[in-house]
Amino acid sequence: MILTAEQYADVILPLPVAGYFTYNVPDELRDQVIPGARVIVQFGVRKFYSALVHEIHDRKPEGYHTKPIEFLIDTDPIVPVASFPFWEWIAGYYHCTLGEVLKAALPSGLKLESETRINYNREYTEQPDNRLTPREQLLFDVIREKHSLSISELNNSVLKKNTIAVLKELLGKGAVTVEEEMRESYRQKTIAVIELPERLRNVRSLDLAIDSLKKVPLQQKLLIGFLELFENLDPLTDFGVTKKELLQSTGISSAVFNGLVQKKIFTVTEKKTGRLVPFAGTIKEVSELSPAQTGALIQIKQSFELKPVTLLHGVTSSGKTEIYIRLIKDCIDSGKQVLYLLPEIGLTTQIITRLTRVFGDRAGVYHSKFNDSERVEIWNKVLNFGNLRSDQTRESDYQLIVGTRSALFLPFKNLGLIVVDEEHENSFKQYDPAPRYHARDASVILGHFHQAPVLLGTATPAVETYYNAKSGKYGLVTLYERHQNIEMPEILTADFKDAYKRRQMISHLTPLLFSEITGALERKEQIILFQNRRGFSPFIECKLCGWVPKCPYCDVSLTYHKHNNSLVCHYCGHAISHPGTCSSCKSKELTNKGFGTEKVEEDLQLIFPDAKINRMDLDTTRSKRGFEQIIQSFERREIDILIGTQMVTKGLDFENVSIVGILNADNLLNQPDFRAYERSYQLMAQVGGRSGRKNKRGKVIIQTSEPTHHIILNVASNDYEAMYSGQIAERKHFKYPPFYRMIGITLKHREQHELDRIAQELSLNLRERFGGRILGPEYPLISRIKTFYIKQLWIKIEREISVVNAKRQMQEIIDRVKMRDGNKTVQIAVDVDPI
Ligand code: ADP
Ligand code: ZN
Ligand code: ZN
């Protein structure tokens, strides 16, 4: 017998516990357990979790007895080892556990939030070679009855001993499965789609068919409904019209549907699919670049030689995307992977259409509106990139991923370029839960680990980024010329306070904006209006006693949504129907205060009865394709006036927009936040950039009570530099980033006085160590959310001081305070570089 050293595996558990945990590899799994694969291990007294193997080694841990790995889930890694240094950086820098990174990184189909579950395999049939023993049968019957149980539940069930061993036998015989395995095996999926038979696939016979249904109007309506859905299919993402979709959209019954099937007008075909549809269009060549764009491209390439991170500061519509496409093409041709990050799901549609035209099936999209199995599939497509298939041909799997921030965690092996588009956007930052990472900053590190250059692109850089570029840390390339020399929009201000006084306001419009909209409508040009509040009115108020309905769980007034006559909390979603009378004095005179997008839409429809008006905000874009549908219909010019929140400001490219109106710039400027002016500038400049794209100079009208506010003037003169110099001077003076690092600490508690007491205690302890670097504790603007009172503290740390040490000391103090009697129920979250 040959004695070899024991094998140990360090694993990451999907729990908020720090560090790696070591298990021993039992003999039967020896040399099968590999880094990046999942295993099932016991943690705590009885619980079982799926964990990710980080490293296999032979170093026996000191001081405790290791438990064995119970099961092996994967025979191939699901996370490349190359990802681990990046995960460790995220956990270290953003001050969270590897388990939290694991949870953020893996699509939920590949991980388990709670304990591992064992499922009954309905395909199991008993054969001579997999017959169950009586003990196995006993356990099997329990699982079959319940369909799915956690291992700890099983442990306590029928068998008094050796449940795990019996379970292993059941798994081996294929009678049960571990849930993680199940989820992966959805791969081959078919969906039933409705098709027209060959004979109806021309306009004439289709018309005849519609006519022939005159006497059965429901069938006729259903056929027409089908045609409408069919025409709106997206060739990139849709397989076809399903029965369910059709019945839902028409509200017609299944019986009517069956009638059409009997008449052989509809045929139902099972389509075998991966869930991701192959690209069906033709691949186009990249566009010819203008001399200015070529210049910028050359400079970027030169810059990458010296500075791995480079900022492309290009005005809106200068062709930044065309430049990205060139860089991406070079990278793809060299056989490497590319990550293209966007701040918002909504933006992916336009961009992916442009990218697939050039890169076809090599481009994939990744974001949170994909369902879980789709995400697992994309994950695997990225993971498999470059692998050889069994027939030795290369997989044509995703080489370019366009995605929102979580795409950062995809299993890249060989990144050659990262593009962060609209790098100034806040939505790159994750607020909750941990890891509270900033995808732009994290991408710089990801690029570093892959030795891939990172290109940050925007018309309005974040102050921090521009500072890094100016100070030489990042390269800087500028492009101040719009494509085809379209002029930058003309920016006008309109004083609404003045117009109110003179009683010249037409609903929410100053005379200037009103006449510009009227003119644009006459010329058949499109209009975008920006209002940063959704809903109908931010609150309602009793005219007699001043009562304002508030959320019982949060410290905010409820927003009135007229379309369903409800009052909604925008922080927790709590909704009630409009009370009709005042709860306090029973008066019926409740008035709407302020205005949101919904009210603007309604009022404008009265002012411009013939205009087609639509709205784009969280409420109208909830469905998977909501955003896309509005954008496409705007592109097709089916909408004259589009009213929207932030969503309309972001990098969209429309051809026919001549007027952009900002209904109330004061709302933006008056936010109590050191970034308010920077953000106001960015929002206004960005939404303004939507105007005047192809052959005409556009106009932007900013309604404000302070037309001479310096930020408004900066926007009007398109002077980013001036805004930047003003802001950077203030940041320096008031000790804010980029000169100081900030760490935010948020405390939450259901009892206000407890919260006050603990926050005070924490701040005293922190001050002892950090002195004047501590700000707060303070209640935020919304001081109670979802029944939790909230207080915040900040640590401001000089750039020169080791942030690692500071974070460690901070954590020690937090732990100490939390450990004290009476303090255990407080929740404390740390946010590094809060925004
Ligand atoms: P940005 O990303 O800087 O806002 P885009 O790349 O979206 O600019 O360009 C704006 C518009 O001009 C797009 O419709 C784009 O297709 C077009 N465009 C820009 N550069 C070129 C080019 N070199 N050839 C053809 N079209 C271009
Ligand atoms: Zn609420
Ligand atoms: Zn009242």
Describe the overall structure.
The radius of gyration is 30 Å and the shape is globular. Strand 23 (566-568) and strand 24 (575-577) form a beta hairpin. The strands form eight sheets. It has a seven-stranded parallel β-sheet, with helices on both faces. A six-stranded parallel β-sheet has the order 19-29-28-20-27-26, with helices on both faces. It has a five-stranded antiparallel β-sheet with strand order 2-1-4-3-5. The relative contact order is 0.07. Helix 1 crosses helix 2 and helix 11 (291-306) packs across helix 12. The chain has 835 residues and is α/β, with parallel strands linked by helices. The protein has 26 helices and 34 strands. The structure holds adenosine-5'-diphosphate and zinc ion (ZN) (2 copies). Adenosine-5'-diphosphate binds at residues 287-290, 293, 314, 316-322, 483, 653. Residues 551, 553-554, 569, 571-572, 574 line the site of one zinc ion (ZN).
